[in-house]
Structure formats: C-alpha cells, structure tokens
C-alpha cells in the first residue's frame, strides 16, 4: 500500500468517526433541551406557591422523563455498543444533569436519596456496565452532589415561604449525605472538587437552621412536625 492509499484509508476512518460524533451530538442536544424543560418545571418549587404544587410538578416531571427515555434509546443506536467510554464525554454532562433532576424529583416526593438503580430505571438505561449503555457511578455521584446544592437553596426559600420544618429535614438529609461521601475514596479529580463543594452546602444549611433557632422558629417547626398543639 502506498503512502497515499494509507492516508486515504485513514481519512475514511476519521470521516466515519466524525459521522458518529455528529449523530451523537444531535441526540445530546435534544436531551439537553428536555433537561432544561424539566429543570424549569421542578425549580418552580422555589417560587411563591411552589410548595403547594410539589406533587403536581413531580408528576409533570415524570412525564418528561418518558421523552428522556426515548431520546436515550435513540442515543444507544448511534455508536458501537462496546465503545461507550470512547464517546462518553459527549453525553456525560447532560446525563449528570438528568441524574440530578431524577434525584430532585424523588427527594421532593419522598425526601429520600434515590439509588443508582432507580435513576437508571427512570432514565431507561442500565445500572450494570456489563449490560451496555449504563449509568456510570461517577455520573450518579456528580448528580447527587448537584442535588445537595439545590437543597441548600430550597432550605433558604422554605424559610421565606414560611415552611420552618423543611430546612430541619433537609439538614438531616444533607448531613447523612455528607457522611456517606466521607466513606468514599474519591480518585476522580473533577468529582473530588465537586465533593469539596458539599461542605459549603452543609454550612449554608446549618446557617439557616441556626437562624431559625435564634428566632425561636425551630421550636415552632418541631411542634409542627410532631403534630402537637
């Protein structure tokens, strides 16, 4: 084979690779749009009467995740099944965003931490990497850390809305989350930096709880939770 033929062959490989990336990019753009729509919907809980509409907003968000599942199903077909990590960077960010959104919806519904397996089910993908297109553990953890920041914001806005018990519950949840992350030996630099930000979320929520205590509102919140008069 001549040098010219060799480079012609290489160009063919490059072109095929570029075509795959372009097809992936199109689907990822659609996923990003759907994620923005879900985000706009669930962040409505921070505004005005948003706390009264939480069940309705969560239901609508669940309906949007049906679109996400369809889009991810399409994404799976755009590249060879055994080359997940070769193209992973294309959808890594949007998948982390979707994990956060799923985690936030589940928290609003039950005030619990969603498992990686349940997130994978919500997104219509696998939890086990051996089974194909899956939810990478680090993507799941990144999404959960974004949830922590959102809950810190929710704690502040809960006080503004006159809901004094919610920040106490959020504080308990975030402290449990922080304890869980402390059990991990994080090697990923990006994930480690994201985790370092969790301490600021913990501090922010602690300040909210402390302010409630100083104003005597934590007693009112505790009575409300206990159902006592």
From TrEMBL:
Swiss-Prot/TrEMBL keywords: Cytoplasm, DNA-binding, Endonuclease, Hydrolase, Magnesium, Metal-binding, Nuclease, Nucleus, RNA-binding
Pfam families per record: Translin (PF01997)
Any one GO biological process: RNA metabolic process
UniProt keyword annotation of Mitochondrion present: no
Cellular compartments annotated: Cytoplasm; Nucleus
Keyword Signal annotated: no
Domain of life: Eukaryota
Annotated GO MF terms: endonuclease activity; hydrolase activity; metal ion binding; RNA binding; sequence-specific DNA binding; single-stranded DNA binding
PANTHER family per record: TRANSLIN AND TRANSLIN ASSOCIATED PROTEIN X (PTHR10741)
Protein function: DNA-binding protein that specifically recognizes consensus sequences at the breakpoint junctions in chromosomal translocations, mostly involving immunoglobulin (Ig)/T-cell receptor gene segments. Seems to recognize single-stranded DNA ends generated by staggered breaks occurring at recombination hot spots.
Protein family (similarity comment): Belongs to the translin family.
Protein's name according to its UniProt entry: Translin
Protein source organism: Corythaixoides concolor
């Amino acid at each position: 084979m001549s040098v010219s033929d060799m480079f012609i062959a290489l160009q063919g490989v490059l072109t095929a690779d570029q075509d795959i990336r372009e097809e992936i990019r199109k689907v990822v753009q659609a996923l990003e749009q759907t994620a923005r729509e879900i985000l706009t919907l669930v962040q409505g809980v921070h505004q005005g009467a948003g706390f009264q509409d939480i069940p309705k907003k969560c239901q609508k968000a669940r309906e949007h995740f049906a679109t996400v599942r369809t889009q991810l199903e399409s994404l799976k077909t755009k590249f060879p099944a055994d080359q997940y990590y070769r193209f992973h960077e294309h959808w890594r960010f949007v998948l982390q965003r979707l994990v956060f959104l799923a985690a936030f919806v589940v928290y609003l519904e039950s005030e619990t931490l969603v498992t990686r397996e349940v997130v994978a089910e919500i997104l219509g993908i696998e939890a086990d990497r051996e089974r194909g297109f899956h939810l990478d553990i680090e993507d799941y953890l990144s999404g959960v850390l974004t949830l922590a920041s959102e809950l810190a914001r929710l704690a502040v806005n809960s006080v503004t809305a006159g809901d004094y018990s919610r920040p106490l519950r959020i504080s308990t949840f975030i402290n449990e989350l922080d304890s869980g992350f402390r059990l991990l030996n994080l090697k990923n630099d990006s994930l480690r930096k994201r985790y370092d930000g969790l301490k600021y979320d913990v501090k922010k929520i602690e300040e909210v709880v402390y302010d409630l205590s100083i104003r005597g509102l934590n007693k009112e919140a505790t009575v409300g939770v206990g159902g006592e008069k």
